[in-house]
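Let's practice the habit of predicting before peeking. Look at the sequence and jot down your guess about where helices and strands might fall. Then scroll down.
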Amino acid sequence: MIGDILLSKTNVTPVANIVLNLTDKMGNNMDFLGESVTLTAPSLALSMINTDSDGFTGLTFGVSFDSSLLIPNTFVNQSFVSKPLPDTDATISLPSALHNFFKGNTTRVQFQFYGTDDLFQDPYTTNSTESSWTLNSYIVSASINNSHVSNLKDRVVVTLSHLTPKQPEDNVECMFWDFLKNSGQGGWNNKGCKTHSVSSYQTSCHCDHLTHFAVLLDVSRTPIGEADSKILTVISYLGCGISSIFLGITLITYLAFEKLRRDYPSKILINLSAALLGLNMIFLLDAWLSSFSNYGLCIATAASLHYFMLASFTWMGLEAVHMYLALVKVFNIYVPSYIHKFCAVGWGIPLVIVSLVLAIDKDAYGNTVAEEAAVMLQSPDLFCWLQNDVFFYVTVVAFVLLILLCNISVFIVVLIQIRQMAANKSSANSRSSLQDLRAVASLTVLLGLTWSMGLFSFGPGKVVLMYLFSIFNTFQGFFVFLFHCLMKENVRKQWRIHLCCGRVRLSDNSDWSRSVTVGGRSKKKNLVNSDSVASDDTSTVRKVSDSSTGSAPNHHHQGA
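Done guessing? Here is the structure:
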């Protein structure tokens, strides 16, 4: 009968609570042989279990539901299971402490599952003009015959799969059906329920009472359209692919030509390029690795992506530290094992952070429903990444914000120095202005300042900023190659010496080559503020005419 009501096109909202109460009474008063019985109908499942109060260790009820077949499959486990049962769309676990609410030697526990929301029409959520919340799961409930269960210390665990995958900007919240809301018509309420863990495809709720539970999704944020989403995906993969190629060329260039990597800025650039290359490569392979449906592989992929992202920002921060020491500190500073200490920080801090996350909760990485959602694993939306919101905001958002704030501060100091140098010049020309502009662009790329656009990707200009964010950040590796290889005369001359032939080839005994050798041998190692270790961008401040993308180095300076 209840199944027929759910299949009918009649508006049952005015009598929904009456139908739900009748379903409870029917289950509590039904006679059957044995300890349990399960009844199923289209989009509906009822399980009644007669339980002894002595020796009660909990109960777990799970349901697998295919919306195309309509008939639910139910599973019952005679114990408390904190994690969802395999291959289920809804699971509810009752703790052993519930025996305190049992009356008599035998008590009937009833579970209900609803694959449709026809009986749960909250006027607040169904009116899109008044609310940003929408139901995003099936509904499951549990009750104990003749008992009102509330204020549980050992909470009921409810795990529900999302009908629509959760996007990173979405909020979800666990709620229960409050029969008293909306003048007795019923509505969703979150009192007594806590959203314990959230992934893209499911949410776990801890509640201190028994009733009908569901997950609601906050859709208040203006989502990006499907067309824009596809274009941004193409831009991201194209940018990362191109950046990977040119970062590889940059690394090979600096590693192959010993004269290019004699100063500290060049060594910092090599490490930054390696971190960015790792970040781009893992990003490109992430979706493919996710498709193997291997949870351990997904965790390893997500942890690697997290590591290289942190390493990239750490090296951007170290680039800013070096610029500060070379520019702001007037006197030479002796730092023993200078670059080794930078390497220890640049690669060590990200390793410590990722190791701590894995030690505390390895399931913070990857997709928490990988095993029970093999079909979803083929979805292009799946991405192995940091799923736990607390870890994400602490180890990613806060970390990136800290690095960006430091880098922006250094960037402002450099801009002030460039302005002062330009003001002190007796005559300015278009060439020096162009060199200043190139130096500023080079600084922006090295310090990763374009990542700050992601912080402002909201409101009416969200889509435009998302496009700019995707273009500038996925092509960061290409810009590194552009400013620090293609537009640097000393790099181009090394290419001409070793890679070209005929008239284009430059002799290794040229005046330029000898000047580099003399400058390289005469530099004072470990003196952070000497001309030989100042970065190209810092040298622009000291002598604007020798910008990072301009003329060849002299006897006292080599480019990064």
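How did you do? The chain is about 45% helix and 15% strand.
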